[in-house]
């Protein structure tokens, strides 16, 4: 690379870094080398460079959503053993996997004895929602009630309601495992009502 070309390269790389396009800056040299050999159009070259940046941004966003979701495990729907639960209608689960219930803001309730896979199915659907770009949050009923009760005692009720209304998908596990006092049940109902009143996703 000539001195003039090298200076231009450094300036372009600096511009990309200054714009926060680190992935594009990192792959610039390699893409320029490929471009010298294959002579792509300007549009094709830019598309390849910007594509690397978009892929990096999406990967970081997905990682952030996964971290914030707080899943206790990461078993996917493809790993679920439907043969072990012959009474489970696989077509219903496959319909839920389309995530239409997220767009319709519908509630999904899995009912059954302990150990039949309710938590795994819920998390598997949550993982699909994360992959689709939705914000997801996993909690247990006991944790939800404990947090809302603490917030109510500290005068942070409005703040905690905004928190619970935030995720597109809220997974509440272990509901019904332990007796829930009247106030706790009221808190759970108010969280559900708050999410319902939020309206359709924009």
What does this structure look like?
By secondary structure, this protein is mostly helical. It has helices spanning 3-18, 22-38, 42-69, 90-96, 100-103, 118-131, 141-153, 157-165, 182-197; strands at residues 136-140, 169-173. Helix 3 runs antiparallel to helix 6 (118-131). The mean pLDDT is 91.
Can you give keywords for this protein?
mainly alpha; two-stranded parallel ribbon; 2 strands
Strands in their spatial order, largest beta sheet: 1-2
Morphology call:
elongated
The chain-level mean pLDDT equals 91
Number of strands: 2
Structural class: mainly alpha
Helix run count: 9
Tell me the helix content.
55-70%
Provide the low-confidence segments as ranges: none
What characterizes the major β-sheet? 2 strands, parallel
Q: Please state the oligomeric state of the protein chains shown.
A: single chain
């Amino acid at each position: 690379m000539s001195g003039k070309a090298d200076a231009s390269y450094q300036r372009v790389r600096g511009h990309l870094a200054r714009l926060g396009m680190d992935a594009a800056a990192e792959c610039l040299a390699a893409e320029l080398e490929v471009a010298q050999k294959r002579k792509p159009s300007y549009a094709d070259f830019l598309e390849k460079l910007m594509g690397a940046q978009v892929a990096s941004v999406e990967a970081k966003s997905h990682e952030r959503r996964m971290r914030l979701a707080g899943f206790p495990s990461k078993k996917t729907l493809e790993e679920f053993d439907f043969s072990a639960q012959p009474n489970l209608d696989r077509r219903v689960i496959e319909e839920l996997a389309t995530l239409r219930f997220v767009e319709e803001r519908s509630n999904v309730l899995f009912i059954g004895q302990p150990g039949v896979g309710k938590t795994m199915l819920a998390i598997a659907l949550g993982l699909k929602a994360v992959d689709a770009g939705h914000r997801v949050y996993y909690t247990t009923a006991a944790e939800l009630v404990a947090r809302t009760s603490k917030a109510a005692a500290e005068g942070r009720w409005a703040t905690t309601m905004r928190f619970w209304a935030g995720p597109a998908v809220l997974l509440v596990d272990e509901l019904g495992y332990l007796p829930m006092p009247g106030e706790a049940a009221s808190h759970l109902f108010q969280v559900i009502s708050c999410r319902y009143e939020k309206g359709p996703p924009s």
